[in-house]
Amino acid sequence: MPYDLFDLTGLLEHTIRTTVKNVGIWDWDEDHITRSILTQLRQELGRVELMGDDVRSHLHWEAYKLSGSYENRFGDIAVLVKINYKDGEHLQGAAFLEAKRRQRRKTNFDAMRAQQVNKILKHAPRAQYLLYDYEDITGFQSAPAFLHEIRNFYRRNWQTGSVAPRTSAVCVPLNVAKATGYKDTLLYRYATPLSMMLSCRYFQGLDLEFGKEAIEVACGYLEKFGLPSYVLEVEISEAGAEPKENTAYVNRQRYEPMD
After folding, report:
1. Residue 155 has pLDDT above 80, yes or no
2. Of 128, 141, 56, the residue nearest 91 (C-alpha)
3. Cα–Cα distance between 101 and 69 in angstroms, integer?
């Protein structure tokens, strides 16, 4: 089924929010939530046809998890984005997300560590925290744009439901968290929903790392800085575009597909 970009954002948001809300109290940890979200996105949106004003018409993604016992980690999720244009141009970059969950009955994210932040920022200055909350997240900085993105999708699919700007997973730049020193829900004032980061930022080639080292880490080939726990590999193409032959792919000796 084809989607326009607004529909895609709404569908992503619905899938992410529903998945987080369905995580029980005994499973409320970052790894379980992340694995659940990536599994649902892969199952529901493995291949998407886009329509509307965006000339890129095909989106295909795969999700991988790090296999075996590997202790040296570099973030929880690497998003490997490859965009193919019909004029022969290609763009490839990587984004890194470090997932944290809100403590039950508290406002803080107790697992935030300055040493970890500094390590990631040294090699991925555009990296983000990915924050999960069991309650609705409101008051984030992109709320007006987010409401515009999802309003039509929700009204077409759930006409009696609320279209208020609320979500369950947001992204906050690591450098903002470091500068403010916040380790609690005050970070939401600088946040963008994960659904919007995917469709309106990463899928547009924005907020990515383009250096060779960052891409090799995201693909699982450069291990000295650590490897991400999960890789979301996304390929986006204009109609008639040919994929780049020497593009980097995920190291299948280190990662296995998530079914």
Report:
1. no
2. 56
3. 23
Q: Parallel, antiparallel, or unpaired for β 47-50 and 2-3?
A: parallel
Looking up tokens 């919007």, which residue turns up?
Answer: 196
Give the chain's length.
259
Query: How many C-beta neighbours within 10 Å does residue 167 have?
Result: 25
- pLDDT reading at 11 higher than 60: yes
In this structure, what token pair is assigned to residue 72?
Answer: 């040296």
- Which residues are paired to 247 by β-bridges? none
pLDDT, tens only, 221-250: 999 999 999 999 998 888 777 777 767 789
Using the predicted structure, report yes or no on whether residue 188 has a pLDDT greater than 70: yes
Helices in 2-142 by DSSP H: which ranges? 5-21, 30-44, 114-123
Q: Is the dihedral of CA 132, 137, 140, 142 positive or negative?
A: positive
Tokens 């990587």 locate to 94
d(CA 64, CA 69): 15
**Joined tokens for residue 58:** 């095909």
pTM comes to 0.91
Question: Residue 47's beta-bridge partner residues?
Answer: 60
- Supply 147's token pair: 């409401």
pLDDT for 248: 73
